[in-house]
Amino acid sequence: MENIIELKKYYSSKEFLENYIYEGNDLGVECNENGTTFKLWSPGAESVVLNLYEAGDGCKAYEQIPMEKADKGVWCFHSYKDLHKVYYDYLIKRDSKEVLTADPYAKAAGVNGIRSMAVNLKKTDPKGWENDKAPQKDKERVVYELHVKEFSFSVSGGFPPEYRQKYKAFTCKHTTLNNDGIHPTGLDYLKELGVTHIQIMPMYDYGSVDETKDYEFNWGYDPVNYNVPEGSYATDAFHGEVRITEMKEMIQSIHEAGFGVIMDVVYNHTYSLDSWFQRTLPWYFYRVFSDGKVSDGSACGNDVASERVMCSKYILESVLYWAREYHIDGFRFDLMGLLDTDLMNNIRKELDIIYGKGEKIIYGEPWSATDTAIEYNKKLANKDNIALLDENIGVFCDNTRDAIKGSALRIREAGFINGGKDKEDYILASVSAWCDPKYNKEFKGVKAPSQIVTYVSAHDNQTLWDKLDYTTTEEEAMRLNKLAAAIYMTCQGTLFFLSGEEFGRTKAGHDNTYNMPISVNRLNWKLAWKNKELVDYYKGLIALRKQISGLCDKSENSYKHITDMWKESRVVGFTVNNDKNSLWSQVKVIYNASKKDIEAKLLGGDFELLCDGNDSMLWKKNISVKAPIKVGKQSVLILGKKRIEEI
């Protein structure tokens, strides 16, 4: 313990900061036709030996090469050979002890990530990769969260057996339910649904699944190699180049289908404290309390020290690498509340410089499991410090989530839709993405709706359907699922939902299925057609949302589009004022969570029916309405004021 405390002091000392902060961006392996260069940052090492192997597991090194000590704690070796597909690791001698480690900066690895691989990245590009790019922006961002294995596991999805649970499933064109040729699944289904971005749960190399076994399952929040794709999603986990090519093929296919790709990244902790970080420089990359106790704000055994210069630099360069090499369009940060605001703002700044302001999406979870031992008076990127974050860094808004359906952590606690009391003001605050100072008494410091991810379900906790199953009757569940969707899809902010929420996805009531069997977690494509009524309702809401400019606006003063807010017990209403490009100058929205029909009075003007509790496509039918009008129990009513054409 004393050694940990002394190391912590040393890493903050003037001596260390002056002598060991490496400013280059070329750590790891650079491999091309001109040769291969290995660089490892390992200050204080007495010697480093580079071991070269023919395979990613087993076999002995065919060559062992002493590396040269360079400046700033870097060890180097250059070969004039293109060592593409050669595997390697390092034998480090420190304090007269030897430790074998893979490369923390590796871009490729063998099976289970235990041995790094040199890779000429140009040789991994699929055909046409140089022309790959994200599709043009839609009127609104609508994010759909899914897991590689969950997406294609079910036989009903119609994916080829050899591609199920793999990156390659996303390259399959026009899949249908049980191959019936009629009912779309896969990307065609998502295109019809209207989502614009696919957020893919962890697809870097993680440690909780044995890549040699096809049917092991985990969500993957257990990083081993941050810059390497996960091998269990590849058709061949033993050859490190295959997973790279197949991930690129997946992204290329998703882009071609018209979606952006958002990557779920987990820089807040590692799978184990016995990591490549720890083996190359003990305790530098981890937080420790002043008494030597290991910080565990992640509840996963450790917290990464994002505030330390070389750790912050590592995370920034990793994000930029994924954006550059894999054409990733955005990043969802797991437990972002454990990272510091300076790091997050720097990531935002660098992405903006390279790709344009706000072009790459950034958002994350603004919380942690428990306290963390952050140093240097840095501020955490959590809800309390949202005012310190760039306006284009978003956070998942649990305030909105819990106001609508009730606590995600207390299964029987209800929200506005399912019987919770005194939720009306929280709903009104949610409508303006917690930006209207008149209603925001709970979530201070929000600059604009661009900072708010509006949602009611994600992979964590019970699905929305299961939550409703605990808090309502079976007869009410479908109505209330529609109402929940109608509420968050008529709130400002960035829309987000869990795959399958739109067809009543269930996990049998389980709240945390990260390591449960794939049979519990898989997407049941049959349910998408059994509950087609619900899917169609989501489809209509998404399309309608894109027509309401006052809700899509993410700018600082966009809350001013929301006027005429009012409330009664279990009922909330408001008006959205739109710009001249919208079909309707005004849109009136009423949420009726009560168990009885109510009558709504209208202000002057001609209105048409856009959506009610049964049909979200009414806006296509030009149905004029007159006051008073009925709002069905446990449902929404959306009306549009016809725009008077200018002469």
TrEMBL record:
- Note the superkingdom of the native organism: Bacteria
Q: Name one Pfam family in it.
A: Alpha-amylase
Provide the top EC class.
hydrolase
Annotated GO MF terms: pullulanase activity
Enzyme nomenclature, EC number: 3.2.1.41
Tell me the ranges covered by the Glycosyl hydrolase family 13 catalytic domain, including all copies.
178-545
A GO biological process of this protein is: carbohydrate metabolic process
PANTHER family attached here? GLYCOGEN DEBRANCHING ENZYME
Instruction: Name the family the entry cites.
Output: Belongs to the glycosyl hydrolase 13 family.
This protein is called: Type I pullulanase
Q: What is the lineage of its organism?
A: Bacteria, Bacillati, Bacillota, Clostridia, Lachnospirales
The UniProt gene name for this protein comes to pulA
